[in-house]
């Protein structure tokens, strides 16, 4: 081999090695991305499932007439307008606002979650325990009437639940939606 062939070989080998190192660097940098996406999806999915498992009734589930009421009215809900379910947590007896983490007054209906959010070190499981390692994540919930989406005359017969989870470090956002229909005996 001549000196020129050796130099050309070294240059070609150097370029190939540089290309491989760039690809390796990008792969290493992006290897955490699937983990972030999967964790963001898991947070949104678990909260959406929790919400969808709650009742969807005209009256608050603490009201004795919860399963017999056929309209969202004070007359149907024990004669007290504060017992009619509305968007967001209720504040009637026992005193205080419903809260996801309060075992004495928990969120007990789908629409109680409207406006609920968690962020960073304050992300908790359904049992109220803090989940460590989620400092860069946040989650927000909106609940909206969606009966019109299905052609129902009563827009309140269906709720659209939207759970949005975000990772602050990468900007990864996952938004999941689910519908909750009012079912018998509370169907329209």
Notes on the structure:
With 188 residues, this protein is α+β, with helices and mostly antiparallel strands. The chain has a four-stranded antiparallel β-sheet with strand order 1-2-3-4. It is built from two helices and four strands; from the N terminus they run ααββββ. The radius of gyration is 26 Å and the shape is elongated.
Summarize the structure.
With about 190 residues, this protein is an alpha+beta fold. The chain contains two helices and four strands.
Summary keywords:
188 residues, alpha+beta, 2 domains, 26% helix
Query: Total number of helical segments?
Result: 2
The major sheet is characterized as: 4 strands, antiparallel
Q: Beta-sheet strand percentage?
A: 15-25%
Mean pLDDT: 84
The number of domains is 2
* Morphology: elongated
Cα distance, first to last residue?
Answer: 89 Å
Question: What Rg do the Cα atoms give?
Answer: 26 Å
What's the number of extended β-strand segments?
A: 4
Strand order of the largest sheet: 1-2-3-4
Identify the quaternary structure here: single chain
The secondary-structure element order is: HHEEEE
Would you identify the regions where 5 or more consecutive residues have pLDDT less than 50? Answer: none
The helicity comes to: 25-40%
Structural class: alpha+beta
């Amino acid at each position: 081999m001549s000196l020129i062939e050796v130099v050309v070989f070294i240059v070609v080998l150097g370029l190939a090695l540089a290309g491989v190192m760039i690809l390796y660097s990008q792969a290493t940098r992006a290897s955490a991305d699937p983990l972030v996406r999967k964790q963001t999806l898991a947070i949104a999915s678990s909260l959406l499932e929790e919400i969808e498992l709650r009742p969807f009734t005209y009256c608050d589930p603490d009201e004795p007439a919860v399963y017999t009421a056929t309209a969202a009215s004070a007359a149907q809900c024990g004669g007290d307008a504060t017992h009619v379910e509305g968007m967001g947590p209720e504040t009637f007896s026992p005193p205080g606002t419903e809260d996801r983490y309060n075992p004495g007054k928990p969120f007990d209906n789908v629409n109680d979650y409207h406006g609920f959010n968690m962020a960073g070190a304050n992300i908790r499981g359904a049992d109220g325990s803090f989940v460590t390692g989620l400092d860069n994540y946040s989650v927000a919930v909106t609940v909206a009437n969606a009966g019109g989406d299905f052609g129902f005359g009563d827009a309140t017969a269906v709720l659209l639940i939207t759970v949005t989870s975000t990772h602050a470090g990468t900007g990864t956002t996952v938004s999941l939606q689910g519908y909750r229909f009012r079912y018998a005996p509370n169907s329209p």
